[in-house]
Write a structure and sequence with these properties.
Shape of chain A: elongated
Oligomer: homodimer
CATH class of the largest domain in chain A: Mainly Alpha
CATH architecture of the largest domain in chain A: Orthogonal Bundle
Helix content of chain A: over 70%
Order of helices and strands of chain A: HHHHHHHHHH
Distance between the termini of chain A: 68 Å
Number of helices of chain A: 10
Number of domains of chain A: 2
Chain lengths: ~200, ~200
DNA sequence: TCATAAAACATACAGTCTGCATGTATTGGC
DNA sequence: GCCAATACATGCAGACTGTATGTTTTATGA
């Protein structure tokens, strides 16, 4: 029965400890923030030693980057699943936005993606990560909407960044106890305001 | 000539070292971020010892909070100076927004107010600080605009938070090399979209 | 299949940092 | 001018990060 551990390929070993480290790190980063989580805690939770951590990740920040990357990927997946290509451009935007707020409701995501990520990794790295995942779906949706004439021809990068920022803040505010209805109403009003301007 | 230092009241002493610590901390927090700035560096820059620091501030975070508070106050002051009461509600909003972007262009403010502040102090404390200063001017402007019928009657808290988030992200993006014109255009389009909806 | 190389880890250590406890000097009040 | 209080300085304990070095497990080729 110990065969599983006593005889594995290097790839299997690596993958198992990497996964264990990511899981433990995510849990603690979410519970106590990145800064207040020490590497000895992480490896204890993961059941390995600090040697393994620094073998797989160049430093603690790289571990956070890996956690954030995976989280952003999960969020993007949930959004794409909720807002398929078949929808109209406008409905895809609205539905995608709802899906984003739902996804960010999952505990810890706001801290990872909106607080510690930007502060520790910097906006530049966060932009890279988000462009690979969650923000890509928004940007594509906006581009489609502009081409379809549903939105006025605004600069795509800036429009994506600012709408994303609104959704980010809404997610933070809702988690902090703000009214989800209020925030959704404002988001809807702003999108409708843009849409009506294109007529 | 040494009279200035050899014979001062306690209030003067305290105020001088507090100011010196705040100035040094701001400089280093901006240059290297909060996390990478050590208290020995700060006190060396300020010309005092760590004893003085921990006499005036309960811990390193409290020092950051004081720096952030002062910075937010400065930003609010610049905005209010640029967008006086005499303007029409809509012009006050637009002008105030421009003034905000200009103010945030001052080096380090994005890092202090938009990155390290939220991450280290938390959204809750940051909201308290911003409500006392910069965000108050925006909220007042929005309330006035809604009362005047220039904006539709949206929930004030949520509207303020989300518009502030947009301006925040615009400031970050511009500092990161993004096109200021693009971001201003998007901001203007979104505000105009809201205004036109109220007709 | 055996020896050697190369991963994948484990352990030990050096340097640094934070917060506190204790000590000293300067100022305020009577 | 003396005592208290405030302002600051110094020294110390505990903890943490990253690295260097040691050990074990897997891969490889003859």
């Amino acid at each position: 029965m110990q065969e599983n551990r006593s005889r594995r390929s290097n790839d299997q070993r690596s993958e198992a400890t990497r996964a264990s480290l990511l899981k433990a790190a995510r849990k603690l980063f979410v519970e106590k923030s990145y800064a207040e989580t020490a590497t000895p805690e992480i490896v204890a939770e993961a059941g390995v030693t600090r040697g393994a951590l620094y073998h797989h990740f160049v430093d603690k920040r790289a571990l956070l980057a890996a956690v954030v990357e995976r989280e952003s990927q999960s969020v993007a997946g949930e959004i794409e699943r909720a807002a398929p290509e078949s929808l109209s451009p406008r409905d895809a935007l609205v539905t995608g936005g709802e899906a984003f707020l739902d996804a960010m409701n999952s505990p810890g995501r706001t801290r990872l993606l909106l607080l510690d990520g930007p502060s520790v990794l910097g906006r530049s790295i966060m932009d890279d990560i988000e462009t690979r995942h969650a923000n890509r779906t928004l940007k594509d949706g906006l581009a489609t909407a502009i081409e379809a004439g549903v939105l006025p021809p605004l600069p795509l990068e800036a429009l994506t960044a600012q709408l994303a920022a609104m959704y980010d803040r809404a997610a933070l505010a809702i988690e902090a106890g703000g009214s989800a209805d209020d925030h959704r109403a404002v988001l809807k009003a702003i999108i409708d305001g843009l849409v009506s301007r294109s007529c």
